[in-house]
Design a protein that fits this description.
The chain has 24 helices and nine strands. It is an alpha/beta fold and 431 residues long. The strands form three sheets. Strands 4-3-5-6 form a four-stranded parallel β-sheet. Bound molecules: iron/sulfur cluster (2 copies).
């Protein structure tokens, strides 16, 4: 079977390496096994970082004898990066897993190809389709359509509809048009798709908080960061989205580019890896300059944590680490500094705050059983800490945790970090 395009070369913590050299850095010591959620949940070697690295290595050596089993093992990876954080050699297992998936799949799923085409050619059409889908959901039509979707083999869409309980009345762009404000050059808000289309209150809160902390800035009509296209094998689509964002950003003024979904922010910071092939040096340098300007909103809030007023009142408050924020961007102390400044005595560390909640992009929809097992473990941690408020910074975590608390621990609620900070500052977009 002819696979999709692969990157071939990766940016690792030890420098640029071929995928084969990166996979060969795994000494099979097993030190990372207990950090891996899919291994600890199943006990299966193939579902461990060591097992997955071995699969990719065999594949690159042309010795793979069970492509179906390999694809199952690689597809079950959350891409959470906990293994890389635990590994002394910093083996980039998530990037290797993606390389393996690309080599084993003939093409990206049809839905991802269609979505990427729309994001590139006609984002307004995508917005209109989204608004129609939201209207159908509010009218209860999407619920009725779930069995039909499942019968048609589109179970992922039915799962998505089931997981997302509420959709907004208006997307972020429409909210902004209703209340335009003065603009400045201190920062540029990069609207990730989650806050932009599903959690506009978080997007509005991010803008309000940035304005309070850093003075006037602005939103520029950015494209999707390309993470979904990248993770599902549409490499050229992801590159094209990256090129457009990079080109646009070169006219955005000198301030930081701030994104309020850690998955998106981490991917924007990794843009240089998309341009490692021969002949791409120019784009690589531009991607490096772009990536150096990107900040996760949490980083900005942490820098100004001393200026955040204490605002307890939401009960025992915990921080949930998103995988891409923690393992992708290395943000461990920053969010806790923010939550402590605001919650004061009410802040608590919950057991396994750093464990994946099972959301992981589309993982919750594609591997619902494994995802639910991880979700129940996460909710148990929140319950053990008697949490009432759990603060998070990534879209798929917000969807997944909201569902988990609804089902297993209704005493707690999840809130986006920007809404949490906005509430402390007395901004109107807070909860
Ligand atoms: S990924 Fe790292 S920690 Fe895990 S088995 Fe390989 S070398 Fe050891
Ligand atoms: S990225 Fe996460 S799920 Fe995948 S091998 Fe590493 S620790 Fe396990």
């Amino acid at each position: 079977m002819e696979g999709m395009e692969t990157l071939g070369r990766l940016l690792t913590d030890l420098g640029e390496r071929s995928a084969y050299d990166a996979a060969s850095q795994c000494s099979r010591c097993g030190y990372c096994e207990q950090a891996c959620p899919t291994y600890t949940a199943t006990g299966r070697e193939a579902y461990s970082p060591r097992g997955r690295n071995q699969i990719v290595r065999l594949m690159l050596e042309g010795k793979l004898d069970d492509p179906e089993g390999a694809l199952d093992a690689l597809s079950s990876c959350l891409l959470c990066g906990a293994c890389t954080t635990a590994c002394y050699a910093k083996v980039p297992t998530p990037d290797l897993v993606l390389e393996g998936r690309r080599a084993l799949r003939a093409r990206a799923p049809a839905a991802v190809r269609a979505l990427t085409r729309l994001q590139l050619r006609s984002p307004r059409t995508l917005e209109r389709l989204l608004k129609l889908a939201y209207l159908a959901k509010r009218l209860g039509l999407s619920r009725a359509a779930r069995p039909v979707l499942r019968a048609l083999g589109l179970g992922v869409l039915a799962e998505m509809d089931e997981h997302v309980r509420r959709v907004p009345e208006r997307i972020f762009d429409d909210e902004r048009r209703r209340a335009p404000g003065p603009e400045g050059e201190n920062w540029t808000y990069f609207a990730p798709c989650g806050p932009r289309y599903l959690f506009p209150r978080a997007a509005l809160a991010t803008q309000s908080v940035l304005k309070r902390l850093r003075g006037p800035g602005r939103f520029r009509d950015n494209r999707c960061c390309g993470l979904l296209a990248h993770n599902y094998g549409e490499l050229e689509g992801a590159r094209e989205l990256a090129r457009r964002n990079i080109s646009e950003a070169e006219s955005w003024g000198p301030g930081p580019i701030v994104a309020d979904c850690s998955s998106c922010a981490a991917f924007l910071k990794s843009y240089p890896q998309l341009f490692l092939s021969p002949g791409q040096d120019g784009w690589r340098r531009r991607a490096q300059r772009f990536a150096a300007r990107v900040r996760d909103a949490v980083e900005i809030y942490a820098q100004d944590a001393a200026r955040l007023p204490p605002a307890p009142g939401l009960g025992a408050t915990c921080w949930h680490d998103s995988c891409r924020g923690l393992n992708g961007e290395g943000l461990k102390d920053e969010p806790r500094r923010v939550a402590r400044a605001i919650a004061g005595e009410e802040f608590r560390e919950m057991p396994r705050a750093d464990a994946c909640c099972g959301g992981a992009g589309a993982f919750a929809f594609t591997r619902p059983e494994l995802s639910d097992e991880l979700l129940r473990a996460k909710v148990s941690g929140a319950a053990a800490a008697q949490a009432r408020t759990v603060v998070a910074g990534s879209t798929s975590c917000l969807i997944q945790l909201a569902r988990g608390f609804r089902m297993y621990y209704p005493d707690a609620e999840v809130i986006h970090i920007s809404e949490y900070v906005a509430r402390a500052l007395g901004e109107k977009h807070g909860p």
